[in-house]
Specification:
- This protein is an alpha/beta fold and 190 residues long.
- Helices cover 42% and strands 19% of the residues.
- The protein has one domain (2-189): Glutaredoxin (3-Layer(aba) Sandwich).
- The chain has helices at 2-25, 30-34, 80-96, 118-127, 141-145, 172-189, and strands spanning 46-50, 59-63, 70-75, 101-106, 133-136, 152-156, 162-167.
- Helix 3 packs across helix 6 (172-189).
- It is globular.
- The chain starts with a helix and ends with a helix.
Amino acid sequence: MRRREVLAGVGSAGVVVGGGAVAVYGLPSSDDLRGEESGDEPPEPFEIETVDAAGSDAGTIEVPDLGRATFVDLFGTWCGPCIEQMPALGEANERIGDEVLFCSVTNESVGPNGSITEAELVEWWDEHDGNWTLGLDPAAELTARYPGGVPRGVAIDASGRVQWAESGIKTADELVNGIEQALEADAGDK
C-alpha cells in the first residue's frame, strides 16, 4: 500500500512539474526536437545503464547510437498507457529487427531505496513481454532531452537528429512508420 502512495505522489509531482514547464516554455515542436530552427548540431549521446532482463543485457548503451538509427520508448512502470503500449512495441521491434537500436528507458528511481527495485522492474518487464534493451535514466537527462508525456516514442537518425517523436499510445504501424522516418533520413544522407 505504501509503495502505491509513493508512486502516486511521484506521478502527481511529475504532472505538476511537467504542467509548469509547459506553461512557462510551451510544448516543444518537432522542429525544436530536430534542431532545425537553430541549425545546431545534434547533442552528444547519453550513456544509459541497461538492465539484465529479457532481451536486454546489463551494461551501458549510448542514446542515440550514432552510426545507426535509434528508437527510444520513454515509459514508467506506474503508467497505465505504458502497459497498454507494450504489445505494439513488441510487434514494432520484431518488424524493425536489428537495423535499429530499439530500447525502452525509465527515469524511475530503481534500487533498494528507490520507488522500485531492479527485481520489481525485471518482473514488470517479464509480465508485459518486454524483449528488447531496457535502460535506466535516473537523473531524467534523456527524458529532459526528449520532453513530452509517457509513453513517448522518439526515432532518431544515425546522425543523432530526431525524425519523429510522439507521446501517447501508438499502434505498431505508427511506431514502425516513425522509425522508418529515421531510417529514410539515414538513406538520404548516403
